[in-house]
Write a structure and sequence with these properties.
Strand order of the largest sheet: 3-2-1-4-5-10-9-6-7-8
CATH superfamily of the largest domain: HUPs
Number of helices: 10
Structural class: alpha/beta
Order of helices and strands: EHEHEHEHHEEHEHEHEHHE
Distance between the termini: 31 Å
Number of strands: 10
Radius of gyration: 20 Å
């Protein structure tokens, strides 16, 4: 890992993300880039022209805050720089060409609920859906980020092989134990022997031997992951996302986004590569 991008709004959640990114950077020799986005002030709703004088003052103040954030005690001794962007939400800014070569995005999440969750969502939720870079979301930072027990929740089909490399590297870096988790639901039930075989064959294909298989039954996948984690007490959850957008996202939703929005644990979300399927369903093969 060479570089970590950390969007910040200078909140407590953003500070938790900075501290987590610092912990990761110390273990991987990565550099950190802080990113803040804002909307430029305008004169009114008619001509929508930018108030340049006011904008200069705002930029100067924001750069001062970014430079102050660079001095956070957790970042001491690390290579840190900052970027300032405008007129873009954070989830759109991280997809900018300037940041495409970063290996990981670490961002705080405030969560969202109800009407806002359905139609707007949180910045972290949208970043999970749209970012092509793996996103680690943090809601709080109570201790040094050094995961020793990682839950990888998946169907363990071939489509997921492309994302496991990131999880594998992170587990190796922190000497973490990886637990494979398959959630069985009433609408998508598998026999235990079949799920165990699917996990075993997945592990063989990705060259990963030291995993702990787990099969958990619940009414839906999100509740299954949450309830399993409540008893297993992991340090982090890893999950893949299809990155759905538009009407398809509104209808089908995203397990990864829902987990990010409702979990206190650090959640690593990795977007799956595009896979063509005439039926829209990917089967194990």
């Amino acid at each position: 890992m060479k570089s970590i991008l950390v969007p910040t709004d200078f909140s407590d959640c953003a500070t938790a993300a900075i501290r987590t990114a610092a912990d990761i950077a110390r273990n991987t020799d990565a550099e950190i880039r802080l990113l803040h986005v804002y909307e430029r002030p305008i004169y009114g709703f008619v001509d929508m022209s930018v108030d340049h004088e006011q904008n200069r003052k705002i930029k100067a103040d924001l750069w001062e805050k970014l430079h102050e954030a660079e001095k956070h005690p957790s970042l001491e001794g690390l290579e840190v720089n900052s970027s300032l962007m405008w007129d873009k939400p954070a989830w759109e800014a991280i997809a900018h060409e300037e940041f495409k070569d970063h290996d990981l995005v670490v961002m705080g999440t405030h969560g969202a609920s109800g009407f806002k969750e359905m139609f707007i969502g949180s910045n972290a939720e949208k970043a999970v859906r749209l970012s092509k870079i793996p996103v680690l979301t943090i809601s709080k930072h109570e201790k040094t980020f050094s995961p020793k027990k990682i839950i990888f929740a998946s169907n363990f089909y071939r489509e997921v092989e492309s994302v496991f490399g990131t999880i594998k590297k992170l587990a190796h870096q922190f000497n973490a134990e990886v637990h494979f988790l398959k959630i069985n639901t009433p609408g998508n039930f598998e026999a235990t022997w079949y799920s165990e075989r699917t996990m075993k064959e997945f592990a063989e294909r990705v060259g990963f031997k030291n995993y702990v298989p787990n099969i958990y039954n619940d009414e839906n996948v999100e509740k299954g992951i949450l309830n399993f984690c409540n008893s297993a007490e992991p340090d982090m959850v890893a999950i893949a996302t299809h990155g759905r957008t538009g009407l398809l996202h509104l209808i089908n939703g995203s397990i990864a986004e829902s987990v990010v929005n409702h979990f206190d644990l650090p959640v690593l979300s990795i977007r799956l590569e595009e896979v063509e399927s005439p039926t829209g369903v990917i089967f194990p093969y």
